[in-house]
Amino acid sequence: MFTGLVENTAEVVGLEARGQAARLDIDVQRIDLAGRVVGESIAVNGVCLTVAGHRGTVVSFDVSPETLGRTTLGRLRPGDRVNVEQAVMPTSRLGGHFVTGHVDGIGRVVARSGRDGGFVLMLEVPRELLKYLAEKGSVTVDGVSLTVNGVRRGRVELFIVPHTGAVTTLGQIGVGDEVNIEVDLLARYVERLLWGGSAGGDRPPALTQEFLERYGFLKK
Q: How much is the mean pLDDT over the chain?
């Protein structure tokens, strides 16, 4: 589990195809990995990956075909920088929101404009994810926990404060760039509750207006 508060950025030093999978190597010299061992989890651009090995400050990960198909990791090249966050400990402060590192889809930057020292990003996200995004709600973009400014005409508006732009890769992205999107975990479970556990979403909601009125949550 992660919080979306990126610890630092790291440099990609290799991405080697291994059949339909790949081996990703990143140099995490800016991050203290003392005590990190093979098998532990690290979020790379918002993707939860398992440490497969390390040599000095270079950490290696095996990336599955599923991950390559659902995220932007397969587009990385040596020299690219990525956002990195180690998994939280039970005693850690939860400064962002609950982030699993299981990316839901890929978004695309369609506009960027400066505002109040920071900048605004407008993202186009997959249509099936829009229902999980709400004004003042949370979303993870390339591993960064952000607050949604608004959702308009199928696009999501985000304000990037100066600090976030300076210490993550978001400060360098522009129109046309693609990013990894993870919606708020709680939004998914709310949907599951509302639709009565129907996997396909083809049954009427279990939590209806009639139910809420009957038990006093809403006034008729």
A: 88
- Rounded Cα gap, residues 69 and 102, in angstroms: 13
Partnered with residue 82 across adjacent β-strands are: 10
For the record, the structure tokens of 101 come out as: 């590192």
Q: How far apart are CA 168 and CA 47, in angstroms?
A: 15
Give the start-to-end residue ranges of the domains of the chain: 8-86, 105-187, 188-220
Backbone angles phi, psi at 65, to 5 degrees: -55, -40
Distances from the Cα of 199 to the Cα of 30, 44, 130, angstroms: 43, 29, 18
Q: Give the chain's largest Cα–Cα span.
A: 66
Q: How far is CA 25 from CA 4, 8, 16, 66, 140, in A?
A: 21, 16, 9, 18, 23
CATH number given to 8-86: 2.40.30.20
* CATH no. of 105-187: 2.40.30.20
Span 46-86, pLDDT tens digits: 999 999 998 888 999 999 999 999 999 999 999 999 999 99
Q: Which residues contact 144 (CB under 8 A, 6 or more apart)?
A: 4, 6, 46, 83, 164, 168, 170
Q: Do domains 8-86 and 105-187 have the same CATH topology?
A: yes
